[in-house]
Amino acid sequence: MPQAAITGAAERVRIPWRGRQVEIEYQWLEADRPDAPVMIFLHEGLGSLAMWKDFPARVCRAAGLRGLVYSRPGYGNSTPRPPEEAWAADFMHRQAYEVLPALREALGLARPAWLLGHSDGGSIALLHAARFPELTAGTVLMAPHVMVEDISVASIARAAEAYRQGGLRERLARYHADVDSAFGAWAGIWLDPAFRRWNIEAEAAGLRSPTLAIQGLDDEYGTLEQVRAIARIALSVKLLELPACGHSPHRDQPLQVTESIRQFIQTSRRQA
């Protein structure tokens, strides 16, 4: 299936964060369906609004949803990270507890929404859903992280080397106004030895919304323990473990992932 970029112009909104105003680029999908349930898409650690390509639009069409896609601060065309600012180990908690609530308030999104997050975005979606169950209709987690594994650190170290050599930097620069801001913050914290103690299993225990957790069997950034730990800890978790699939299930197995999300949402809405 072709992966055309998201069409239409992104909008921008300012939100207060960390004592300053930051600009967030965002886009509504299926905007002509104001009464449809909303799904919020949370991108991966090196992602952005544009890097999702056509996946959010396909999910929204398949499941009858309206979509909100945005770039977190430091990514895409949102406000870049200040050069002197290094992320701390709680960077995903801040996104889940501070940035996303502020964005929802700025856009008037008070109704419960579905959350779909990939990789770091999956962890942020989990944290937001567990902290704000009244705002969450259900959660789709693709290759989320709940702990730091050796395979994750090794793969990020290889990515950092590819970035230094230039090839990865050139590819990512198409999707970020300040690519060094995006990559530097992500690689810097993930490769910090102190981050090895990061773990959100305790937070996952608060997850109450219906959840679909998806993991590729060939994921180079995490093992199946990531999603299986969520299933052991949280309520109402359905696992989808995909063969011939790496860290990006929506790119490696797009048809199966889209259909599985559609069925999950349909079933969850019937049971609500």
Secondary structure: elements and pairs:
Elements: E1 11-17, E2 20-29, E3 38-42, H1 55-63, E4 66-70, H2 91-106, E5 113-118, H3 120-131, E6 136-142, H4 150-165, H5 167-172, H6 179-190, H7 201-204, E7 211-216, H8 225-233, E8 237-242, H9 249-252, H10 254-271
Parallel strand pairs: 3-4, 3-5, 5-6, 6-7, 7-8
Antiparallel strand pairs: 1-2, 2-4
Helix pairs in contact: 1-10, 2-3
Organism: Comamonas terrae
GO molecular function: hydrolase activity
InterPro entries: AB_hydrolase_1, AB_hydrolase_fold, Carboxylesterase_BioH
Provide a brief overview of the structure:
This protein has 10 helices and 8 strands. It has 272 residues and is of the alpha/beta class.
Would you give an account of this structure?
- The structure is a single chain.
- With 272 residues, the chain is an alpha/beta fold.
- The chain has a single domain, classed as 3-Layer(aba) Sandwich (Rossmann fold), CATH 3.40.50.
- The chain is built from 10 helices and 8 strands.
- Strands 1-2-4-3-5-6-7-8 form an 8-stranded mixed β-sheet, sandwiched between helices.
- α3 links the parallel β5 and β6 (136-142).
- The longest helix has 18 residues, at 254-271.
- Residues 1-7 have low confidence and may be disordered.
- Residues 40-257 form the AB hydrolase-1 domain.
- It holds the Pfam family Abhydrolase_6.
- Keywords: Hydrolase.
- GO terms for molecular function: hydrolase activity.
